[in-house]
Every structure is written in C-alpha cells, then in structure tokens.
Amino acid sequence: MLEVEDLTVSYGPVNAVRGVSFTLQPGEILALVGPNGAGKSTTLMTIAGEKRAAVRRGKVRVGGRVRLDGKDILDQRPDQIVRSGLALVPEQRRIFGSLTVADNLLVASAVRRDKTAARQETDAVFAQFPVLARARDRRAGLLSGGQQQQLAIARSLLTGARVLLLDEPSLGLAPIVVEELMELIASLTDNERAVLLVEQSALQALDISSRALLLRNGEISEIDNTRDGQQMLAAYFGIDVVVGDAPADRS
C-alpha cells in the first residue's frame, strides 16, 4: 500500500533523514521506533505532505520517492494525500478543543464525497469507540488525554484513510491507558487498512506490530518481533526484558 524509497530530509546542512526505505502491506502494523531526534516524526510528516510548504520556501530539502498504491504522492498537498487514502494522527493530537466530539468527526468526514457513506461510518466509529459515543456532545478539550487520542484516531478513520500514520499516540498517557490504546490500535487493521506506528514505548509497539524498524541518526534497520528483537530493543533503550515465557518488563 505504501512504498518509501530512499527518503531524505535535510534542514540546511543537517540531514534529519538519510535514505530511509520500507514498504507497508495491507493488514500490517509497522512500528518505527528510535530515540528522540532520530527523525521519526520528520519521516511521518514528510510522507503526509506536512513538509511541502517548507520545501517550497526553501527551508527543507526532500528527496526520494513515496508511493501510495503505486502513485507518487511526495509532491502532493496534505489535503490531496488525505483524499488519496492516507491520514496522519499527529503528535499532541491537534483536535479542535472548542468543538464537540461529534463536530470534530464531522470536520473529518467533510473530505468524503459520499456523504451517505460518511454518516454510516460515523455511526460505526461511535460503535467502535463507545467512550466517544457517550461524550459526543462534550467539548473535545474537556476529554482526558486518552479520550482525546481516541478522538484523533477516530477522526482519521472518518477521512476514509486506508493507511494511518500514528505519531507517538501514547505520549503523556498513564500506563494503563497506554495498554488500552495499544489494544485499540491492534484492532484497526484489516485486509484493506494498514498502520505505520511511531512510538517511544518500543516494546509495547513491538507487541502489536508485524515488523519493527529502528531509526537512529536518520538511518533505518529492521527488527523482527521475536524475543531476539525484543532483547535488541531492550539493550538499545536500556530496558529490562524477562527471558523465557514471561512477558517483557515495561516498567
């Protein structure tokens, strides 16, 4: 569904992303992990078209290719990319706090040409996110952090996106909320949808992903989600992993 080939992003003399390449298949959750400043968010924002204005002003240089369903989208505007079927759930969520939950979803569905389908999918989203259904008439700014993150994800679904880019969805959330959120993200994929997940909680991301990519110093390497992969991430991030059948220690 998504092909990234030799992606480079530079801010003046600083190379933030260096020759990143990967593919994302239907039904797959691909985790992109790494330390702060590694280029993870830059990679997602570039794919989603968020760097296009800076490129046109000459502040950022971007190279390589990004294809969605075989079509090159690297030079498209963010709204064009959304209509093509790819949506970014940004870090810090960026919901409309002064609008109600229902109105936030209405804004997202406005990009859809088939309004009947959009209304039906709104009902389906409320069924999938019962906490949002109960709060549909509340101002989004009054929701908890976990509820706001669910709203941000639900909003992306209502654009009709088949590829979701999630940027640090667990940021600032309590551990028990993070576990619930990871279960929700794991339920999002099907044969027609895929997720690219940037996540600082590396082992939790690995638990729900098909594959993982480690990004460091702007360059990428692939990790599997076996015990060896967990131990590699644990060593890199300084996390203890219980060897054997016991689950990883995520304290």
3D architecture notes:
By secondary structure, this protein is α/β, with parallel strands linked by helices. It is 36% helix and 24% strand. It is built from 10 helices and 10 strands. The protein has helices at residues 40-47, 52-56, 78-84, 101-109, 115-128, 130-134, 145-157, 175-186, 202-208, 227-237; strands at residues 2-11, 14-24, 29-33, 61-68, 71-72, 86-89, 163-167, 194-198, 211-216, 219-223. The protein starts with a strand and ends in a 14-residue tail after the last helix.
In short:
This protein is α/β, with parallel strands linked by helices and 251 residues long. Helix content is 36%, strand content 24%.
Shape: globular
Strand content: 15-25%
- Total DSSP helices: 10
Q: Mean of residue pLDDT? A: 85
Report the CATH superfamily of one domain: P-loop containing nucleotide triphosphate hydrolases
Number of strands: 10
Tell me the major beta sheet.
6 strands, mixed
Main CATH class of one domain: Alpha Beta
Runs in which pLDDT lies below 50 for 5 or more consecutive residues are 240-251
Radius of gyration: 18 Å
Proper CATH architecture of one domain: 3-Layer(aba) Sandwich
Largest beta sheet: strand ordering: 6-7-8-3-9-10
Structural class: alpha/beta
Q: Please write the string of helix (H) and strand (E) elements.
A: EEEHHEEHEHHHHEHEHEEH
Per CATH, what is the topology of one domain?
A: Rossmann fold
The helix fraction, in percent, is 25-40%
Distance between the termini: 35 Å
